[in-house]
Automatic annotation (TrEMBL):
Top-level division of the source organism's lineage: Eukaryota
GO biological process, one term: glycolytic process
Protein name: hexokinase
Pathways involved: Carbohydrate metabolism; hexose metabolism; Carbohydrate degradation; glycolysis; D-glyceraldehyde 3-phosphate and glycerone phosphate from D-glucose: step 1/4
């Protein structure tokens, strides 16, 4: 019967091999984003991405929460390769009831320990970073952010599960008036052990704890830790393997004794692996085996065994003493007698066998788990052989030499491709925790520096209200006949007096110049809608920046090519010309170019009527069938094309290469055009807002650097804060500054990043997408020959977010001025208006429109603003302006 019990507790090697396989499977399940939620082995990210490199430095406080005590340490790291860390520590016993009481009481107690400890070592009052070793499973999202998932190991304090343990400790510490102590890192005891073992010589990449409970951690390939979005290098994963088997995968090795132990525990059905391995349960397993054997009358026959009915009567310490070989059976006898069991020689011998079987089984199972980790590491690193150091701690490992021997030999059998060197952890977790804290501290200091650098780019509500007010003032100046010349916002009349009414009909040609592409279009406006065909033509930079004659010649050539292709040579169609540069318009078909923007600089054009330039070129090219009826800005085209679908659309907005807006203003307010009746569309040319210095307070050094390098330095200052042509450049300059300050890419020089325009605005869109974006960040940075770490990628993302948020908010401040003016013009308490929008930045950026609309609601609460994206506003809009004009012209 005794043999039968021993047999039940012995797991054959094939079965252990199967257990290893299941552990591997469970680990993969925990790592994958899809299956993580259902996984028993949770594989929690720890946000620890490297083992210590010896440069860690400073005075660090460590608090370790243990089973029955709290240990506080002060560790002084000297940055000397961790040769001689100085450690002072103190242990505080915990009152027994505290681990099942209120959460607040637990944290207050821990904070009191910290206070007493600090008082005892008369520590200086300068800031002290604290690392918290918290041996329970937490959902960690940063080094200093960790929600307790669930208590274990007999702890069950109220109001802690689901909360951020770092915050709980920090507030308890505040209550003790220890204002100079900052909790900067939280880690599991396994992680602390791994780090401690790493401090001497070779890095240690795996750690096991076999104490009251059991757990492990290891350095995983970061891209496999899908929950953390880490993308390069490695990250330590806390396996939380104590819950392995909670889904029934271990049922074939569970004995009836294990079932009893589980049922009598405070958490039946949970932590099945831990209940086979952790010392909290081993005494109980032995007790149940003994009870069964007593019932079968093969143990302690005729003796009083009532004591065996008491739960937890057999402590781990006693089990370890019973199996101790040194004094033969004497110790076993002493322990059993102390329990009042009056054992015979044979009883002692049998009890000893049983205890050994239980502890050996624990060691073998641990080996199966370790073998799974090692094989996983070997496979994911694509190695044929793997040699690693494994830090081990816990009373079972320390208390019984055979445990380590079994662990080592069984692991070798189950993972023959791996060579594990077990390193007993001599100093526990404290020094390792100090190292992790030092690293966290470095990161926190960097975060502060980064925030300082980015602060000028962050605009407060008050800032934005000021921008809105300034825009409003500039608008008034631009409209006034006297003040017009001094305004930075030119408020150009467009001679467009109405939006479409739906009766427009006919076939039109349209040109679109001033966007990324030059296009020629034919547009048919009919009862059942609008049909278009178009062709994109390239304007070489040499032509954009050459002579005006060459530019307009080129345009005519493109039109002729288009007409040929579309078989339109014979017809004379009315032409609408979308010309997206600031013009002084003198009529619908007369527009004097005021200045080039967006990279154009063709000579001999500024001050000329562009329609005339086009007609002259047509003559030069002997193209006679050209009838230009309207020049339109792209903002106006956008407003018109959206107006065709929504009569409320009285504003046009562009956020593409450049930015600009137009809106319907009351004629009586337009001082620069005769007439008081009705409305006229005003092309604001708001890109130049600030060119008179009124926005100087808001420009940062980065903006100045970007501006200096443009072909129109000092001009279009508002545009240069907002639009696609510049956002990437702003980001690039910030990144360069961060590298210079050693805050990015470890300060390594990045030659490619020195190249102008290499960081494209479309990268911002990719980088700011939620989800797996960090992988994308890395891919983009890799193209720029930048090797980004996890922190680097996050930082680049933060920079992009800051720059695009500012752009969206400034745009909102401008629009707020517009809609508020329209509301006041019309004497309304509430204005409902639609904005027709175009521009790739607005359309493609994942956050821009959201931020813009949110900010606009805040700045103009009395206006209900709807945004309508225009489909090809420039083409369709030009045709519609032409159509509206023709409608008026033909009786
Ligand atoms: P335009 O304003 O010249 O008519 P677009 O509206 O297409 O042309 O805007 C082009 C600008 O949009 C480019 O200068 C580029 O900076 C920016 N851009 C291109 N792709 C994206 C993207 N995916 N996300 C954000 N911005 C983009
Ligand atoms: Mg455009």
């Amino acid at each position: 019967q005794v043999q039968r019990a021993l047999l039940a507790l012995t797991i054959p090697l094939e079965t252990l091999q199967a257990v290893k396989g299941r552990m591997l499977q469970a680990m993969r399940k925990g790592l994958s984003r899809q299956t993580h939620a259902q996984a028993n082995v949770r594989m929690l990210p720890t946000y620890i991405c490297s083992t210590p490199d010896g440069t860690e430095k400073g005075d660090i406080l460590v608090v370790e929460l243990c089973q029955s005590h709290v240990r506080t340490l002060r560790v002084t790291l000297l940055g000397d390769g961790n040769q001689s860390p100085q450690v002072t520590y103190k242990i505080f016993d915990m009152p027994g009831d505290i681990i099942q009481g209120k959460g607040e009481a637990l944290f207050d107690f821990i904070a009191q320990c910290v206070r007493q400890f600090l008082a005892g070592i008369s520590s200086p009052q300068h800031r002290l970073p604290l690392g918290f070793v918290f041996p329970f499973s937490c959902r960690q999202t940063q080094l200093d952010k960790a929600e307790l998932i669930s208590w274990s190991k007999g702890f069950s304090c109220s109001d802690v599960e689901g909360k951020d343990v770092v915050q709980l400790l920090q507030s308890a510490i505040k209550k003790q008036e220890l204002h100079h102590v900052d909790v900067v890192a939280l880690m599991n005891d396994t992680v602390g052990t791994m780090m401690t073992c790493s401090m001497r010589g070779e890095p240690c990449e795996v750690a096991l704890i076999v104490g009251t409970g059991t757990n492990s951690c290891f350095m995983a390939e970061a891209q496999l830790v899908e929950m953390a979005e880490e993308i390069s290098g490695q990250m330590c994963v806390n396996t939380e393997w104590g819950c392995f088997g909670d889904d029934g995968t271990l049922s074939d090795i569970l004995t009836p004794y294990d079932q009893h132990v589980d049922q009598e525990s405070s958490n039946p059905g949970e932590k099945r692996f831990e209940k086979l391995v952790g010392s909290l349960y081993l005494g109980e397993i032995v007790r149940h085996v003994l009870t069964a054997l007593v019932a079968e009358k093969v143990l302690f026959t005729g003796r009083s065994v009532a004591i065996l009915r008491t739960k937890d009567v057999l402590k781990t310490q006693q089990v370890l003493e019973i199996i101790d070989n040194e004094e033969g059976m004497a110790k076993a006898r002493r322990v059993l007698e102390a329990l009042g069991l009056q054992p015979s020689e044979q009883d002692c011998c049998r009890v000893q066998q049983i205890c050994r079987a239980v502890v050996s089984r624990a060691a073998a199972l641990c080996a199966a788990g370790l073998a799974a980790i090692l094989s996983h590491m070997c496979q994911s690193r694509e190695l044929e052989r793997l040699a690693v150091n494994v830090g081990v701690d816990g009373e079972l490992y320390r208390g019984y030499t055979r445990f380590g021997e079994i662990l080592q030999s069984v692991t070798g059998l189950l993972a023959p491709e791996c060579m594990a060197t077990l390193l007993p952890s001599v100093d526990g977790t404290g020094q390792g925790a100090a190292v992790v804290t030092a690293v966290a501290l470095r990161l926190a200091a960097q975060r502060r520096e980064v925030d300082q650098l980015l602060a000028p780019l962050r605009l407060s509500c008050a800032d934005l209200e000021r921008v809105q007010a300034l825009m409003r003032r500039e608008m008034e100046l631009g409209l006034g006949l006297e003040s017009h010349a001094n305004a930075s916002v030119r408020m150009l009349p467009t001679y467009v007096r109405g939006t479409p009414d739906g009766t427009e009909r006919g076939e039109f040609l349209a040109l679109d110049l001033g966007g990324t592409n030059f296009r020629v279009l034919v547009v048919r406006v009919a009862q059942d809608g609008i049909l278009m065909a178009s062709e994109i033509y390239v304007i070489p930079t040499a032509v954009m920046q050459g002579t005006g004659e060459a530019l307009f010649n080129h345009i005519i050539e493109c039109i002729m090519d288009f007409q040929l292709k579309q078989d339109l040579m014979e017809q004379v169609l009315p032409l609408g010309f979308t010309f997206s540069f600031p013009c002084q318009q003198l009529g619908l078909d007369k527009a004097v170019l005021l200045s080039w923007t967006k990279g154009f600089s063709a000579s001999g054009c500024v001050g000329q009527d562009v329609v005339q330039l086009l007609r002259e070129a047509a003559q030069r090219k002997q193209h006679l069938g050209l009838k230009v009826v309207a020049v339109v800005n792209d903002t106006v085209g956008t407003m018109m094309s959206c107006g065709y679908d929504d009569p409320k659309c009285e504003i046009g907005l562009i956020v593409g290469t450049g930015t600009n807006a137009c809106y319907m203003e009351e004629m009586r307010n337009v001082g620069t055009v005769e007439g008081e009746q009705g409305r006229m569309c005003i092309n604001m040319e708001w890109g130049a807002f600030g060119d008179n210095g009124c926005l100087d307070d808001f420009f940062t050094d980065f903006d100045r650097l970007v501006d200096e390098k443009t072909i129109n330095a000092g001009k279009q200052r508002f545009e240069k804060l907002i639009s696609g042509m510049y956002l990437g450049e702003i980001v690039r300059h910030i990144l360069l500054a961060l590298v210079e300050k050693q805050l990015l890419f470890r300060g390594k020089p990045c030659p490619k990043l020195q190249t102008r325009d290499i960081f494209q605005t479309k990268f911002l869109s990719t980088i700011e997408i939620d989800g797996l974006a960090l992988r994308q960040v890395r891919a983009i940075l890799q193209d720029l020959e930048l090797q980004a770490s996890f922190e680097d990628s996050l930082l680049v993302q933060k920079v992009c977010q800051t720059v695009s948020l500012r752009a969206a908010q400034l745009c909102a401040a401008g629009l707020a001025a517009v809609v508020e003016k329209m509301r006041e013009n019309r004497g309304l308490a509430q204005l409902a208006v639609t904005v027709g929008v175009d521009g790739t930045l607005y359309k493609m950026h994942p956050r821009f429109s959201q931020h813009l609309q949110q900010m606009l609601r805040d700045l103009a609460p009395n206006c209900t603003v709807t945004f309508l994206q225009s489909e090809d506003g420039s083409g369709k809009g030009a045709a519609l302006v032409a159509a509206v004009a023709c409608r008026g012209a033909e009786p």
